[in-house]
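Example (one chain per record):
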Amino acid sequence: MRAVPNWAVATAAAAPVLLVAGWTVAESRQPPGYDPVRDTISELAGQDATDAWIMVTALVLLGCCYLAVAAVLHAAGLPSRFLLAVGGVATIALVAFPRPTVGGSLSHGIAATVAVLALALWPAGSALRLPRGRDKSHPAAPQPPWAFRRAVGLGATIVLLALFGWSAFEVTSGSRTGLAERVTAVAVALWPLLAVLSARRAHLSWAAGGTTTVGPALPLTGVVTPDPLRPPPGSTARRSDPLP
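Predicted structure:
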């Protein structure tokens, strides 16, 4: 089981902080007509936004956080890491295809959909790859981290997909598009942090129990315990069977 570096924990923790701080500061720079419950995050980085560079920077750094976590989170498995990396690239692509001043953008919509779907599906990738519980064919192998167990991973994906469905509904026929988008974005940004903390805890537990002693512990003074098959020193007792 590979170790999770400290910088990966810090990077995963920075993702939701960058997201919330980015839209909070960007909202403060918008005209009074901007409503965070109704209006989307993409409008803060759009072509007609005031100081759009604030949200643009936050989205780029957020995507880089996802890519960095995907590069080192070996416990998740290659399929999940690939989906997480796709989500990071698609998050950065939102900046390359900003929302226009009037109307919508097909490229922006595709990038946003790919980003949310990839970040919602990546917990299930490791859950389907790993066994349901302890591997009976390899009983000595450690259990996977709790975030990558089948029930937990599938449950996380179901919750994230439900939030994505809420966002899609609000975009088409609702009035709380901004609220749904923000709740979904925070949820998908928090799961990489929980996964990293889970993998780190599992590695520390495995490393702590990795060295086990076989048989009774010997004294640390260099004295060797006597062989029970041999007579004690100075004894004149004879044995009927030869000693090896």
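Caption: Residues 210-225 have pLDDT under 50 and may be disordered.
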